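Structure in, sequence out. Go:
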């Protein structure tokens, strides 16, 4: 049974009808949720990037540590050798006979500078009270870090070799990182000379840059390859799954002969075999069910027609006995009356069975015409007036005025008659309210009784054939048990809804919603499914209220019934209907 659109959609439109239903940021989220290959490829890509970045950082750290340690060891050995060589030459120098110490220092600088050879160049700077001498004019004195100079100058008698990182500044090239070593050369009779050996690390920096570029290029290539491989694997796995989904959709649409192609012997091939086996079994079962359904429909139709002839004969005899019952003794007269009643019920049952067989065979035809709903309700009440009077039941109609729709009046009158008779039978002689409402697209008729009701879980079962809420309860009116089923089929034939609401001890309400124009599609009902007397504390309008008259003021105890005043009730009713 179709209950109409989901209540969440109605609530979203009521909150902000101008707000777009699909926001832009939902597009990537929807794509992520709907595509398994996209999730696999994206996850592989992100994981590969993280692994490559962490691995590249670790590799560069280890490489930098190794290169710098090797350079540090080599530079430390060269600096020690240069300082020992210079100190040995100064120890062998005769200060008294040597009149030009600057020439001597220049020779020492040339000597220890030439020792660098091909193992890596370095610069030597000597500072003394006589001035500063350099092994190369290309090196700037600012290449010696200030903290190292201060440390060495503060310890003139300490011959240990100190080192500090620095930035080598040359006049012919760019500044490069380097390492500086410093100590004091001891000269008898003087304060000594500060000697600084500076090692540029241009080659090491270039090596690390080349290694970094290689790591980045290799990582990018590996990420691309891993992502591509993940895409291929996902495609191999997802393609059979998609084929199975398409096969299931084709099976659901009725193509029971469709089968999947089986390739290989792996799990995916077994999935295809299982799908094909399931399709074969479904085809077999559906064929059997269709055959049984045809046999059942043919049986019901044939039996209904075949019983017409003996029923006509029995009815003729029963009518003769019924008309002559006054001449019989009381027992025979009562038997004639019961025979007449049961024959009427039997004829109604045959009529309903024929109508059900037409619906099952798809032979029911709709004949819509513009109809006044109020006149239709009046005809139904006229036909059930004697039944309502015998049950001492008051029926009240609440109509906002003229309501018309393109409907098959014969079928809808039968629907309303079934609902009213059902309400009288289960209403426990309490008042019955018939509510009418309409909007631009739909009309709705609700029949509300205050009788025994039924459980909320039975709201759909009441439309099943021959169903009873209480099997021990006997029908006082003598219905066939097919009335609500036929009413549901008549309503569906109009493209409408027939919904039921009930609670034990609080009565029941049946609502019929029909499109105002034949063939239109319903979106919502003008009436809530939950009874108004449970939604609003105001009582229903009085029984003598006339259609089209203005409603009484609220302080007089009446209730407005225009559609604009029922928006809240309609939303609650639709929500209760969907939750059910």
């Amino acid at each position: 049974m179709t209950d109409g659109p989901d209540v969440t959609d109605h609530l979203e439109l009521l909150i902000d009808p101008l707000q777009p239903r699909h926001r832009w940021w939902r597009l990537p989220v929807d794509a992520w949720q709907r595509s398994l290959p996209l999730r696999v490829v994206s996850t592989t890509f992100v994981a590969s990037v993280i692994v490559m970045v962490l691995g590249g950082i670790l590799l560069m750290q280890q490489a930098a540590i190794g290169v710098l340690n090797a350079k540090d060891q080599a530079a430390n050995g060269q600096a020690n050798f240069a300082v020992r060589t210079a100190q040995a030459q100064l120890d062998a120098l005769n200060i008294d006979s040597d009149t030009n110490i600057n020439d001597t220092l220049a020779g020492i600088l040339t000597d220890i500078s030439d020792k660098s050879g091909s193992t890596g160049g370095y610069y030597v700077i000597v500072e003394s009270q006589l001035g500063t001498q350099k092994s190369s004019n290309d090196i700037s004195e600012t290449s010696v870090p200030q903290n190292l100079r201060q440390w060495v100058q503060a310890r003139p008698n300490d011959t240990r070799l100190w080192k500090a990182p620095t930035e080598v500044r040359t006049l012919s090239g760019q500044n490069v990182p380097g390492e500086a070593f410093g100590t004091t050369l001891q000269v008898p009779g003087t304060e000594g000379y500060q000697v600084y050996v500076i090692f540029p690390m241009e080659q090491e920096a270039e090596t690390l840059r080349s290694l970094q570029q290689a790591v980045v290029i290799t990582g990018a290539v590996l990420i691309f390859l891993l992502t591509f491989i993940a895409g291929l694997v996902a495609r191999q796995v997802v393609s059979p799954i998609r084929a199975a989904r398409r096969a299931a959709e084709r099976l659901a649409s009725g193509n029971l002969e469709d089968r999947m192609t089986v390739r290989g012997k792996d799990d995916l091939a077994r999935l295809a075999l299982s799908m094909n086996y399931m399709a074969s079994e479904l085809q077999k079962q559906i064929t059997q069910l269709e055959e049984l359904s045809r046999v059942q429909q043919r049986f019901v139709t044939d039996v209904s027609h075949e019983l017409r002839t003996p029923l006509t004969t029995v009815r003729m005899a029963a009518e003769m006995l019924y008309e002559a019952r006054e001449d019989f003794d009381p027992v025979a007269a009562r038997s004639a009356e019961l025979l007449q009643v049961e024959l009427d019920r039997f004829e109604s049952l045959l009529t309903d069975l024929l109508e059900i067989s037409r619906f099952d065979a798809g032979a029911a035809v709709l004949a819509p015409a513009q109809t006044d709903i109020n006149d239709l309700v009046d005809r139904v009440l006229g036909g059930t007036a004697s039944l309502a009077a015998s049950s001492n039941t008051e029926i009240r109609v609440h109509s906002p005025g003229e309501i018309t729709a393109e409907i098959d009046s014969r079928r809808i009158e039968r629907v309303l008659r079934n609902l009213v008779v059902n309400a009288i039978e289960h209403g426990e002689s309490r008042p019955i309210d018939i509510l009418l409402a309409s909007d631009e697209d739909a009309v709705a008729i609700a029949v509300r009784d205050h009788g025994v009701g039924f459980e909320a879980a039975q709201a759909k079962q009441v439309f099943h054939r021959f169903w009873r809420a209480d099997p021990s309860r006997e029908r006082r009116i003598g219905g066939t048990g097919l009335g609500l089923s036929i009413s549901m089929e008549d309503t569906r034939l109009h493209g409408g809804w027939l919904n039921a609401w009930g609670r034990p001890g609080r009565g029941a309400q049946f609502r019929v919603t029909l499109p105002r124009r034949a063939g239109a599609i319903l979106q919502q009902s003008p009436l809530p499914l939950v009874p108004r007397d449970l939604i609003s504390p105001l009582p229903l309008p009085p029984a003598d209220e006339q259609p089209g008259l203005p409603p009484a003021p609220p302080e007089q105890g009446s209730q407005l019934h225009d559609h604009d005043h029922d928006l809240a009730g309609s939303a609650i009713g639709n929500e209760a209907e969907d939750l059910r």
